[in-house]
Amino acid sequence: MVANQENAVTDGPELSAARNQLLATLRDHIDQNGLSAVNRMVDQLLAVPERPMRAHLLAERLPRYDTHLCLLLLRTILNRSAMRDPRAREVLLDLTRARPIARLLGYQRSRQLYELAHQRDQGAVAQLFLSTLTESSQNVSSEFLARENTKLPDESLGWRKRLARGNDRLKLDRLLFDRNPTVIAMLLKNPRLIERDVVKIAAMRPTNPACLLEVFQSEKWIKRYRVKVALACNPYSPLDIAMACVPHLMLPRLQYLARNRTVHQRVRETAEDLIRRRHEGFSDEQDPIHLVGSSGTIVREIDGGEMELELDFEQITRELEDWMAV
Fold it and tell me: Is there a contact between 42 and 50 (Cβ–Cβ < 8 Å)?
C-alpha cells in the first residue's frame, strides 16, 4: 500500500512533464501546420449562410480550441482581412458580432491569448481582448443620453417605438436622431428606411455607442459599404466594431482615416498598416517590371540586372487575328 502511494507520488511529476512535452509538441505542430486547419474552419463557417448563425457557431467552437490554435485562427483572420480576402472579412464581422470576445472565451483563456499575442508581437490580436470603449464614447454624459430625442422631446419611449414601425416619413426622419438603441433597432427594420438614413445614424456624433452597435448588428445594413465607412470613421463607435469595418475600406477612405485625429489611435494605426500592406501587395503583383526592347524582345529586370527574353510579335499578331475572326 505504501509502495503504491510512493509510486503514485513519483509518477505524478513524470506524467505531468510528459503531458507538457506532448502539449508543446502539438503546439509546435499547430504553429507550423495549422494554417490548413484554419482554412477548413473558415470554409465550414462560411458554409452557413446566415450571419447570426455563423456568429453563434463561432462563439460555440472558439472556446474549445487550444490556445495556440485559437491565436493562429485569430491572426489568420486579421491578416487575410487586411489583404482584402472577402471570406476572412466576413468571418471578422462574425467574430465581432459575437462580442465581446473576452467574455466569450472566459477570463483565463483570454488572459493566456493576450499574453501569448504580446509575446509574439501580435498587437492586432491582443487588441481584441482590450476594452471596446473609445475615449469619445467614454465621455458621453448621462445627461446627454437622458435626452433621448431632442427632435421629439414630448414623445414617450413606447410611442417612439410605434412611430419607428410606421410610415410617416417626417417622423422617421426625426427618429434618426434618437439615442435609445431599442428605437434604433426597430427603425432599422422598417422597410421604408433607405441607405442614406442608416449612414446618417452610423455617422451621428455625438451619439450613444449602443445605437451604433445596433447598426452593426443589422444583418441587412452592415452589408452596405457606406455604412461600414461611417462606423469605421465615427469616433463614438465601439473599438472592436470600428476595427472590424476598417479592412473593408478602399484606399482613399483608409488614407482619410489614417489622417483623422478624432478616431482612436488603434484605428489610425490599423489604417496605416493596411495602406502599407496593400501597397506592398500591389508592388508584388507588378514586379518584375517588363519593358519591350527595340529588337523585339522583353527586357525583364531581375535583382537589379536585365535579362532579354525572346518575343515573337508575328505569332502573337496571327493568334490575335485568328481569335478576332471567330
Answer: no
